[in-house]
Design brief:
- The chain has helices spanning 3-19, 35-43, 63-74.
- The chain is mainly α.
Length: 103
């Protein structure tokens, strides 16, 4: 055998040996691996058939307000929407001190 073939065989054997250690930790993952993602997905999904206990308040459980709202809707006397702003129109100062400090 020539020297060149010996080097090729040696490199091929080295490459094959290196492949043997690539996946030695399969099955050693943490038991809770992926739980954070599963929890995040579950929190963002609305339950289509929620179960409420008999004594708990359910969404939209105020029947008097609901009945009055339906009556106003059917008679076309819906309450006007109130416009609310996020600013009060009062101007403030920048909070900076002028004159170089306390006197």
């Amino acid at each position: 055998m020539s020297s060149k073939r010996i080097w090729i065989v040696a490199l091929a054997c080295t490459a094959l040996v290196a492949c043997n250690t690539a996946q030695t930790h399969i099955g050693d993952e943490d038991a809770a691996f992926g739980e954070a993602l599963a929890y995040d997905k579950a929190v963002q999904i609305i339950n289509p058939a929620p179960v409420y206990s008999a004594e708990s308040t359910q969404p939209g459980s105020n029947g008097d307000k609901g009945a009055e709202a339906v009556k106003r809707y059917r008679t076309d006397k819906v309450k006007a929407v109130e416009m609310m702003g996020t600013t009060s129109g009062v101007q403030g100062s920048s909070g900076g001190m002028s004159g170089g400090g306390p006197q």
